[in-house]
């Protein structure tokens, strides 16, 4: 398997420049993973499949879903792509490379873990700032147009927010100058995580059922369906930041009520 991956990678670095791979390659990889992982949840919602695992009973209208996809394509091409192109010189300066050999799995794993921890910390505080009155009204309210989120709404946001919270995702790789394959792996994992957090379904196989510090869809769905001043659950991936700073009290209280058979936070409209 390693030989196959290296052979495929050798083809890429032989036929494409570092700039093409790091900017255009990253963009096409992001688009592929994002839409391939997010679109199935639109189908599940429209077809009514696996509805017993749907967190909210309310469904989004066809017009709302189409609006989301249209805006996403516009923002991705108009904001994400130029940002990837413009940031390449800095990443290159910090040590980003695509040449063989690959870094060891220990290096890749340690960097990915570091990226997740750092991203979650920066995202938490950035997200809390976006929930202040003025910024919520003029910027973050765009993302909260969808009180019943589905996978693709994870990146539906005001252009200013894309830049602001996008910083949390790129700061780790920016300061470590990783191998491009590490950057791509981080991008794939981060996209899959945020799509899952917004998917609107809590499955028996959801990671949050097996990893207590992971937030997941149930944790983040609560954030979307409450008023911005009372929502809490600001973290992107893990739950410990909200626990430390007490911004998950409402969520935990609701979970406790459900366990005691008093109410059901999973079926709200």
Automatic annotation (TrEMBL):
InterPro entries: Fatty_acid_hydroxylase, Sterol_Desaturase_Related. Belongs to the sterol desaturase family. The keyword Methyltransferase does not apply. The keyword Transmembrane helix applies. The chain crosses the membrane at residues 20-44, 72-91, 103-125, 162-187. Residues 113-247 form the Fatty acid hydroxylase domain. It comes from the Eukaryota. It is found in: Membrane. Keywords: Membrane, Monooxygenase, Oxidoreductase, Transmembrane, Transmembrane helix. GO terms for biological process: lipid biosynthetic process. One of its GO terms (cellular component) is membrane. It comes from Hibiscus syriacus. One of its GO terms (molecular function) is iron ion binding. This is Methylsterol monooxygenase 2-1.
